Amino acid sequence: MHDVLVIGGGNAALCAALMAREAGASVLLLEAAPREWRGGNSQHTRNLRCMHDAPQDVLLEAYPEEEFWQDLRKVTGGNTDEQLARLVIRASSTCRTWMRKHGVRFQPSLAGTLHLSRTNAFFMGGGKALVNAYFRSAESLGVEIRYETPVDRLELQDGRFVAAHAGGRRIEARACVVASGGFESNRDWLREAWGRNERGEWPSDNFLIRGTRFNQGVLLKDLMAQGADTIGDPTQAHCVAIDARAPLYDGGIVTRVDAVSLGVMVNQEGKRFHDEGEDFWPKRYALWGRLVALQPAQIGYCIIDAKAVGRFMPPVFPAVKADTLPELARALGLDPTTFMQTLDAFNAACRPGTFDHTVMDDCRTEGLTPPKTHWARPIDTPPFHGYALRPGITFTYMGLKTDARARVHFGGAPSDNLFVAGEMMAGNVLGKGYTAGVGMSIGTAFGRIAGTEAARAAQKETADAVA
Questions:
Q1: How far apart are CA 216 and CA 238, in angstroms?
Q2: Measuring CA to CA, which of 63, 142, 181, 337 is 20 to 30 A from 69?
Q3: Measuring CA to CA, how many Å separate 157 from each of 161, 164, 416, 417, 422?
Q4: Whole-angstrom Cα distance, residue 230 to residue 424?
């Protein structure tokens, strides 16, 4: 029997396995995916948000705890557990030395990501390099890893973990960490959560999944059925407006279109529906997926002109281009008359200012609903570019309620040997909204806590048995 069983293969699970092994526990990690698809959604990431009080190698200036907290509080609308959020924030300031020890390397922000140069540390080689480094380190430390081993259910007794059941096999351990992701790839559960809208549509049928197809929420549903305490709204998620041509699964970051704040967004009816310039893109990009999900047919269109080209990270798919705005409307399948009414009204409402995409500038609209409060410039310079966008779900927020020791709770009482990390508990910190890199901060902090606590619980059980 192993001391600690870790279920999952992403950042949080790997952090838990490494910490438990460093604490002296024998560790078995079960990854549902085959080896070539290992890493969960973490393989598609590229940075984590880090608190720091002074410049640190790849991080510029300072990003103190209170500013991080205020950023998080703003994007969540206060829907966050402040104690756990501050725990994550403080842990983000000390984790990188440990990460380097396990082979993770960092690099400065690249062109197009400079808004994050003060707040986020980028992984050299991206998330795939990070998870590969962690897997190599885990193997070298003696963590046993089994691929293509999805767990069907957990066997519990009075809130205590007893065994995991995987494909007819019963796997016992003295303690367990569940870090197997949310339910974003479970199309039936998404339908159940989102239901029909007032137009009779099933919105979730048009969602694309930015991350892994293996996050089906099997253990989340199992633990809910066994009375585990939950937190969060099943419709809240890290939901980004991504290129409508993206694949159903595993599109990753390259399917994101970062031009929204530089232009206008219209729906299928050719009408704007939200302020494109209300805040810096890293603090608002994850809002747009949900906004698009609320539009007819769950689709929106990002419209920019030649002035915006080269000011954002180029996406994997090329834009639809035209020499005139009516031609662009027709190429995108939009009614040119309504489209031009929208664009003409926007252009007329733009007020002169000093455009600067690196600050909250004074380029704004006046007398327009919804307004564009920053970076508003007329869309008037050909060629014109358009991107059709659909909601891209990265991970869901509804999960298991936990505490500062990463324990799963049942009826308010914490388990003494079952712990949770990563997407399965992120809703404790992220009730809604998102700010770039915070998901990796949560997974790293709680993965490390869960691994340490699981090792301690296993060692206690062994000591009690000897006594």
A1: 16
A2: 181
A3: 7, 12, 11, 11, 24
A4: 10
Indicate if 384 and 425 belong to the same structural domain: no
Both 144 and 7 in one domain: the answer is yes
354: its two tokens: 């000093």
Whether 223 and 148 share a structural domain = yes
Q: Which of 348, 365, 392 is the last residue before a domain boundary?
A: 392
> What is the pTM for the complete model shown?
0.93
Helix H or strand E encompassing 434: none
Do the beta carbons of residue 3 and residue 459 sit within 8 Å? yes
> What share of residues in the chain are helix, strand, coil (percent, to 5)?
35, 20, 40
Residues 6+ apart with CB under 8 A from 310: none
Placement of tokens 């002109």 in the chain: 305
Q: How many domains does the chain have?
A: 2
Q: Are residues 448 and 372 located together in one domain of the fold?
A: no
Judgement on whether residues 348 and 442 belong to the same structural domain of the protein: no
- By the 10 Å C-beta count (0-12 exposed, 13-18 middle, 19+ buried), 457 is classed as buried
Strand, coil or helix: 4 = strand
> Rounded to whole angstroms, how far apart are CA atoms 272 and 372?
10
Interacting residues of 463 by C-beta distance below 8 A, sequence separation 6+: none
Q: Are residues 147 and 247 in the same domain?
A: no
Let me know if residue 210 belongs to a domain.
Answer: no
Residue 364 covered by a domain:
yes
CA 459 to chain centre: 33
pLDDT tens string for the chain (467 positions)? 999 999 999 999 999 999 999 999 999 999 999 999 999 999 999 999 999 999 999 999 999 999 999 999 999 999 999 999 999 999 999 999 999 999 999 999 876 665 789 999 999 999 999 999 999 999 999 999 999 999 999 999 999 999 999 999 999 999 999 999 999 999 999 999 999 999 999 999 999 999 999 999 999 999 999 999 999 999 999 999 999 999 999 999 899 999 999 999 999 999 999 999 999 887 788 889 999 999 999 999 999 999 999 999 888 999 999 999 999 999 999 999 999 999 999 999 999 999 999 899 999 999 999 999 999 999 999 999 999 999 999 999 999 999 999 999 999 999 999 999 999 999 999 999 999 999 999 999 999 999 999 999 999 989 888 77
